[in-house]
Amino acid sequence: MTLLGHDLVGHGEAWREWRGAMASGRMHHAWILAGKQGLGKALFARAAARELVAEAGVPQPDHHPDVLELAPLPANDEEQKKKDEGRPYQTKRNISVDQVRAIQHRLTTRPTLGERRAIIIDPADDMEKGAVNALLKSLEEPPAGTFFLLVAHRPGRLLPTIRSRCRTVRFPALPDADVARVVSGAAPQADSATRAAAVAAAEGSPGAALGFVEQELGPVHGLMERLVGEGDPQFTLRGALASEIGARPDRPRLLATLDLARAVLAARLAVASPLQRLRVIDAHAALATLSAQVPTYNYDAGLLAMEIGGLLASAALPREAA
Length: 322
Known about the structure:
- This protein folds into two domains: 2-170, 3-Layer(aba) Sandwich (Rossmann fold), CATH 3.40.50.300; 215-314.
- 52% of the residues lie in helices and 9% in strands.
- It has helices at 12-24, 41-53, 77-84, 97-106, 129-140, 160-163, 176-186, 192-202, 206-214, 218-230, 236-245, 251-269, 274-293, 301-314, and strands at residues 2-3, 6-7, 30-34, 67-70, 117-121, 146-152, 167-170.
- The strands form two sheets. Strands 4-5-6-3-7 form a five-stranded parallel β-sheet, sandwiched between helices. It has a two-stranded antiparallel ribbon with strand order 1-2.
- α5 (129-140) links the parallel β5 (117-121) and β6 (146-152).
- The protein is elongated and about 70 Å long.
- Pfam families: DNA_pol3_delta2.
- This is AAA family ATPase.
- Residues 57-91 are annotated as: Disordered.
């Protein structure tokens, strides 16, 4: 298994639990793979699914017909074209009920190469309400030989009726040293300051750290640190932050910027004075609200950047207090 061409770390306990269940002969029919985004849960799901459906003596193709995946579709025809060309593309916000029903139609037939079939849903916590209800029917009465792997970044968003029918495997956040090793191997071109900022902001997620490196958020990180440390009475740092984020950033860059801002505040909280602590907590809560709204609301990027800068500056102590 690899993460952008480099060894995955932190999956040892998950593999022990999965393979122990396979060896027991009492394999549960539905699993939730739970943990923050960027820990390699989807890669684990694909590898585990291939182990599950493999038959001794039967050649296993690269694109296995008995491993089916559900993920958000490209956002529109233009994004579909990008996907077909192998370029990065934006997706719809949710997995639709029609996608789930299409998979359920496949389940009326037998597996192609063996006795088992695996369904991967990534991420399961981004399904439409109708899709969730449709999936629940399959979890309640799973076809023989069918197993579900639900990748969940926020498992609390799944219905209790879904969670109660699944066995949960938890993927913990990794130590910074492990994240740094992954980043150094996968992004050797990044300078040391960028890698260090990415590791600090990722909060134990190698995927998030690599996302920060890919988005080239090193200068953004430096401005955020200054905003929290110095404030911004003349609005100059906020303007510089908006310029670094860009006039028309895409959604992944905006979300990465918000995650980075929250991480900067979380790190500040550990060293904040009692007077500053409440400021940091309030700003962090406001950024969390923005992070939840950005995927749905059509924010003006420039105004959003100024809002992020304002919240970071609000966490700084006034000069007289400092």
